[in-house]
Predict the 3D structure of the following.
Amino acid sequence: MNTRRKAIHLFTVTFAKGNSLFCMTKRLIIALSALLLVGLSAEHGMAQGQVKAIQFSGVVVGGKQSEVLPSATINIANTGRGTVTSNNGFFNIPVFPGDSIIFSYTGYRRQYLIIPKNYNEPSYSAKIQLREDAITLREVKVYPFRNFEEFKKEFLTMNLPDQQEREALARNMDPDYLRRMGAMQGSGVNSSFQASQNQISNYNANKGFASTIPFFNPLAWASWIKSVKDGALKDNSWKEIYKDAPTLNTNRDSYIRQQRRNN
């Protein structure tokens, strides 16, 4: 109020002591500027006196079990002020109506809270519940190799999980092994029946025709005599296939064991 009175007194003196129009105009501008500054200062002081700080306190928890979050960050937007929670998750910070409070913690989503503009109480408290923030990471494959050369070497020398089964399959599918197994098998009921039917069918088909048995064919006899002269009876290679056939005094299991020992 004293400042305002001095400004009014200066304005009055300026008009009283002005001797010329120029001086009066100059002093009038100075006096009006002083009054404007005084009015703005008084209005700003009244506005500051009306805004009071609010003591904002509370606790920050997170997760499904609402566990306290120590050292959680609390910031007041656009002010550069903030604090962190204690080991028990509690905090206490002065704020003003309309302030936007930001709560953040590693592994949790940010939470925002705005102090009501018309809040006139000296204190404000709240329990802040943060939600977990699930982040999906890209797949990472870890190999026990330092470089591609080590991987190539291990890959070429490693044994497959079914290596033994593969080796057994290769032995069982060997042509010589299958031939020996075929020589061991006798005629079954189905094969005997089929052979009998084939004989009947051939007999009926050749009824009334000359026999085609080579024993009664003169040309076949001439070919056989020629082969005997050439030494066909001395060639015993045809007997090799019967060497692997089982004898009459053995069975299937003993024969298979003998073949495995020979291999």
